[in-house]
From TrEMBL:
Topology within the bilayer: Peripheral membrane protein
Subunit text: Interacts with ERF2.
PANTHER family for the chain: GOLGI AUTOANTIGEN, GOLGIN SUBFAMILY A, 7 (PTHR13254), GOLGIN SUBFAMILY A MEMBER 7_ERF4 DOMAIN-CONTAINING PROTEIN (PTHR13254:SF0)
Key words of the record: Endoplasmic reticulum, Membrane
BP-aspect Gene Ontology terms: protein targeting to membrane
Chief location bin: endoplasmic reticulum
Domain of life according to the entry: Eukaryota
Compartment annotation: Endoplasmic reticulum membrane
Regions crossing the membrane: none
Pfam families referenced in this protein's UniProt entry, alphabetically: Erf4 (PF10256)
Golgin subfamily A member 7/ERF4 domain: residues covered: 19-131
Protein name, as recorded: Ras modification protein ERF4
Species the sequence originates in: Dreissena polymorpha (Zebra mussel)
Amino acid sequence: MGQKMDDLTRIPVSHCPKVFIQRDYSNGTQLSFLNKYPHELEGKVDAQTFQTTVSKLNSMYEEAETLSGMTYCESCLACLTAYLSYICMKTHYEKMLQKVSVYINEQNQNVYIPRGLMLIDPVERGLRVLEICVLSDSSAGR
């Protein structure tokens, strides 16, 4: 009833075609993904929307890996407690990965799923690739 996509054209996530956005190693091993628009997404989502999503993800990962006084204190506390402190608290990196996951879910609900696509959290792929599943064979009328 209020669905934007016909159930007959929907493909199960495990069997759907996938588009992989590779990591960008041009700045060393810093976690970021290539911002180049893949031709497989043409007609599904515009390049500006895709690039905005990837840029936001890259900036969130950059913030997660940034060293600060807080991260130094976390590390010192971990050493002093034989890393038992990590049982009681989440690290800055873990908190940022959680924010990335929330952002991906929001993007899926508001942008990608209505267009027949779905972003897969890079954590599920070992932070190696950003995976995009093509859920339908049409762009849901777009």
